[in-house]
């Protein structure tokens, strides 16, 4: 289990191969069963440069619709973004999102009480590795006010989750949405975000 003690996992599939999306689901299952309880999961649909219309004629067509990935990500409470390792699309945004998510978890756990953090060894090491930073207007296409609102909403929902454990399941989707909204606004060639 080389993901033991991990704060976040990036699970990558190839948007031009449906098989890779099935494999991704197996990895998510594995992580949920054996990974740290509060691990941040991020799904990256790689090779989004190939969804460009010019590639459709050369048979490199998209097999996994972004809608499917988004629905699946929401069902498991993960961040989702389409990337291109080749053209460096959304790579920074992906890691900004993960950093933001981890930072908020850690800030919150320190604010409330040490016992509210499910895995303190993760939180402490990540806290020093990733000092809390949030996307600025210059590095993110979303406005500052929108960022601030989403961040506040995310923190509010997280507090509710901690204080009201019985609402955990319902709120998991909601707080992931607040965070994910920032990432979901990123667009990739060939498919419009909804
Ligand atoms: N167009 C495109 N090609 C990519 C991208 N990322 C990786 N590749 C190419 O995909 C091929 C496989 O890359 P690897 O890093 O070996 O990935 P892999 O998962 O081991 O292999 P595959 O299952 O074949 O994708 C290489 O030819 C890469 O250049 C991307 O974002 N866009």
UniProtKB/TrEMBL annotation:
Sections of the chain in a coiled coil: none
Listed Pfam families: Ras (PF00071)
Keywords: GTP-binding, Nucleotide-binding
SUPFAM superfamilies recorded: P-loop containing nucleoside triphosphate hydrolases
Membrane-spanning intervals of the chain: none
Gene3D superfamilies: P-loop containing nucleotide triphosphate hydrolases
GO molecular function: GTP binding; GTPase activity
Keyword Zinc-finger among UniProt keywords: no
Family: Belongs to the small GTPase superfamily. Rab family.
Protein name (database record): Ras-related protein Rab-31
């Amino acid at each position: 289990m080389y993901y033991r003690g991990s704060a976040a996992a990036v699970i990558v599939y190839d948007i031009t191969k449906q098989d890779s999306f099935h494999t991704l689901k197996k990895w998510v299952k594995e992580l949920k069963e054996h990974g740290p309880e509060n691990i941040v999961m991020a799904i990256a649909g790689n090779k989004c440069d190939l969804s460009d219309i010019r590639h459709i004629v050369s048979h490199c067509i998209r097999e996994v619709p972004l809608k499917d990935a988004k629905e699946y990500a929401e069902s498991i409470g993960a961040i989702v973004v389409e990337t291109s390792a080749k053209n460096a699309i959304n790579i920074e945004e992906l890691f900004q999102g993960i950093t933001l998510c981890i930072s908020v978890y850690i800030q919150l756990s320190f604010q409330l009480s040490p016992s509210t953090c499910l895995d303190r060894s993760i939180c402490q090491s990540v806290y020093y590795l990733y000092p809390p930073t949030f996307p600025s207007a210059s590095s993110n296409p979303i406005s500052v006010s929108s960022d601030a609102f989403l961040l506040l909403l995310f923190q509010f929902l997280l507090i509710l989750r901690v204080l009201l454990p019985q609402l955990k399941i319902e709120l998991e989707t909601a707080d992931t949405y607040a965070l994910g909204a920032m990432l979901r606004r990123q667009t990739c060639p060939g498919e419009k975000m909804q």
